[in-house]
Amino acid sequence: MTAIPPHSSIPTVTTASGVNNSLNMVCKVRKGFHLPLSMLIIVPFLVSTFGIVGLIGWLSFRNGHDAVKQISNQLRNKVTEQVKTRLHSYLELPYILNNLNSNSIDLENIKGGYEEQRIQMQFWKQLRSFPQISNIFVANTADQYLGARRIRNMLAVENSLITSMTDELGRSQIILLARRGFDLRERSWYQNAIEAKRDIWSEVYTDVITEEPAITAVKPIYAPNGEFQGVLGISILLGEINHFLQNTKVSDRGQTFIMEPSGRLVASSNADVAISIKDKKSDRLLAIQSQDELTRIAAASLKEYPNQIDDQIQQSFIYFHGEKYFLQVSKLNDTFGLSWQIVVVVPESDFMSQIKENTRSTMFLCMVALGLTTILGVIAAKWITRPITQLSLASQSIAEGDLDQKVEYSCLVKELAILASSFNQMSRKLKKSHNRLEEYSHLLMQKVDERTQALQQEILEHELTEAALRESEEKFAKAFRSSPDGMALLSTDTYKHIDVNDKWTEITGYSREEAIGVNPTDLNLWVDLQDRDRMLAILEVNKRVANFEAMFLTKDGRKITGLVSSESIEFGGQVFAIYALKDISDRKLIEENIKESEKKYRDLVESANCIILRWDTQGKICFLNDYGLKFFGYELEEIIGTYILDTLVSSQDISGEDLRNMIAEICSAPEKYQLKENGNICKDGRHVWVTWSNKPIYDDHGKLIEILSVGTDITDRKHAEKELQSAKEIADTANRAKSEFLANMSHELRTPLNGILGYAQILKRSYDPNKHQEGLEIIQRSGEHLLTLLNDILDLSKIEAKKLELNPSEFELPKLLQSITDMFQLQVRAKDVKLIYQPLTALPNTMYGDEKRLRQVLINLFGNAVKFTDCGSVSLLVSARALELNNYKIRFEIADTGVGIAPDTLTDIFLPFQQVGDRARRYSGTGLGLPICQKLVEMMGGKLHVESRLHEGSTFWFEIDLFEVPHYSRSLAIDSRSISGYYGARRKILIVDDKTENRMVLNDLLTPLDFLVVEAIDGSDCIVQAKSFDPDLILLDMVMPELDGHETTKQLRQLPMFQKTAIVMVSASAFDEDRSLSLAVGCNDFIAKPIDPEALFKVMRSLLHLEWKYEELRSSESSLTNNSKSKDATISPLVLPPNCTVEKLLQLARMGDILAIQEEVILLQEANSQFIPFSEQVLDYAREFQIKRIREFLELQIQVSS
Fold this sequence. Notes:
22% strand; 7-stranded mixed β-sheet; 8 domains; 9-stranded antiparallel β-sheet
């Protein structure tokens, strides 16, 4: 008995035809419109690529356009600010000068004469100093008018009646214009100044002389009580503003012009005239009437806009010849009522050319990218569709009954390879199942076979789906975790984080636990929520966002720049949002640094204070910076592309070196010419010296393409080197002259020392006053000669150190000249020489200058003339030429008929230590006289000239300016009597010197005058002697061993008992710095050695308040003195001040207040020059501390007046 299986387990037996039928049923395809898989792959890819590329191109164009607009605004604002700054500086000058003039001019005291000349001269000097000023004037309420005016290239002064041209010194010369009925008080600006009561500007008008626009700054002047006195005015020309605007353009075709609110043109950058001249009358143009069409259109467009608010900038645009122009208007105001409009116009095309070029480049790149994308899409589609087509053909073959089908699965796409492998496995199983079914074909029905086949297909598909899903999840999780960017998964409903990767936590600083369940807004990740809203809007429209840049805030508060990319994905049947966050802060920082570096490089090149030049191997100029253009005088268009030779570098150097092969040599061996000095030429033909630092520039293949040359102007250094060489030669000459001087000086020193030492030995053996009187005189003259030598050397050293100063005072010029000629009368009697003194013109009597230095110059020149003249004549010719305000130019000329000076040595006579002439005469001098004379004359404002012919004679002459003193008070007669003592208590003197002979001289000089004298041998001994002796005066030597004079003074002043003791420093050094240092350490005065008794007595009288006793004069001398005093009294009679003043002085004299007497007398002579003789008499007694004589003099004057 055969067992029959259950129905469900019995396999269905199916024939081959049945299998084919079942496969055909499964593989039936619904008829209709079908698209190829390659098209479905390529077309969306191309559309998305084209959209993205087009969007990037559009954004690039829009961003470039916005950047150009921003740069245009910045340039216009910069030009406007430059114009405002320049105009404020240009228009500030008149008010500064008005303020200065208002402080120096008293309108109530303009009474003609000197005051008018002073005001006109002040205005004239200001005009000469400031060329932009055309007129300066002052007018008061009395219809008095004074001013100075610029007439083309000359200056004129004017008043209410006339206008006169002036010479180079400001003096009136030619009357240019006479006025009648001229009343400034009727002018509109005069009335406006009164009404405004402050500084104002006049309206812009046309200057009648220059026919240029001008404007006047008017300042009303008020008295301290508020009463109006008049006005000050300064007019300036506005033509300079045109030049400034022409040099301050925004671009090549841009324009800048200035206009008034009324529309009248003030200035323009296109050299447009602001004035129209019709029928010989000038009138100011409106801007809409300008000769320039662009200016007219811009001015006309301004009428469409409302009036500007102060400091507000209006920006708009206009169209000119179909082209768009940017227009900017700003207002220029000041505190004095000035109101102008500054208009800047610039074409948009000057900035858009580069943007259009970039747009074309972007479109080209987009087309290239689109083509590449299409090619790659076709290739990718073929890769994908080829295995699918094979699967389709194999399936059709199986459906047709051919079960021996095998698909190659060497495909690059992993999923398709899996699908091919599964298909082959399915094919094998089908074939096996088919064979098994054939065995059961007789037992099983077709139904069982169909059910089995369907079940197997369902199981296979389920397994494949589960495997693919697991593999996809694993891939997503792996990519999500290991992504180099921060990744986060969001819910599309709440936008809360579902998961974040490690990179996200690293960027934001939040942990996964802190981020999951919280949206980015709650974490404060967005710095600007508007960025978030914009990104969400893009995501909602496009379903994806790519590289959205925004600022984010990390947990620790840092701000970072990030790129966000986001899109929606379907996962497990749900829709999620995933976004990637990439930190680009470092990249942005690098970009900013690169921009800053580029900006610094541009600024460095543009503002470098050196020449920066690039040129190629052919010698053509590729680049030259602004400094180089300005230095050589070229414009950029003129220089680029030209050859260096004969443009910047001449074919032959200044030094004569041939430079024609220099370019080739530098290019062949640039390392040899890294530093090169050579002569260069400028556009105007000037030759300059430049040091070039050359650096070769190579391409990627190591080929030399350019030379970068950085140049430094060394023209001044070359000139200085040349001058240094000349100075060295002069110094060598001076050194040789100095050696000759030392040889001559030995003779000059030994000759008087021979007389001094010889007669000193004779007097030491025996002394007869009558017999040796001449010897004593020789000793004194020899000592004075040595002192003169030392003074000459000191004068020269002071002059070279620029420490010699002039000490001007009043002196009688004729008396000085006569005394000099009398001095040499005795000397010329021994020669056959005639001495001539001849004033060529009337000489002023009393002058103000340095009499001592003038006497020194004349004596030296006169002495040289006498010394070098053996026969003939020596003449002193003097002439005077009046200048202005009591000033005279005095010419002194000393001529002789002596030996003369050879032409080749004429320039050497003014060198220190240099002597010319025969040896006998040269050894009688030091060679310092003429150099000292030359320097002294230059200090007095003149120049010493010489003309000479050998064996015919020489002429020295110079001119100096001296001031004549209108009222001169003759000095009182000097008391020539010898001092025999002093009145009052006996005074104690401490003499400190390490040289015994110096102490003996002072002791022998002071002891006969009844002074109690004690000596100290050094500084330490001085302190000991001073403590025990308590002197009234200490005469202290400056240079001593161990403790010098300065240190001794410091220690004495630290002791309380010597705080007020008089100390006088005695030194052989006569330099001012030694005097200053001595006074600084605490000395009361300074005396130079050899000591002059009169100078010593004067210092002692001042410090010890002494009144000297004098020896009685013989009767003949007494009568002579009385006659002299009578003569002086006749010449300068005393004019007494009021009795109250005399009584006040007498009261001060009785109190012994010398300082108060001197102050009162000085005020008296300043108040009235008639009291000068009286004041000088009292001051002379006060300087001598003769209180008793002051009382007697004042009491006598009171008796005379009563």
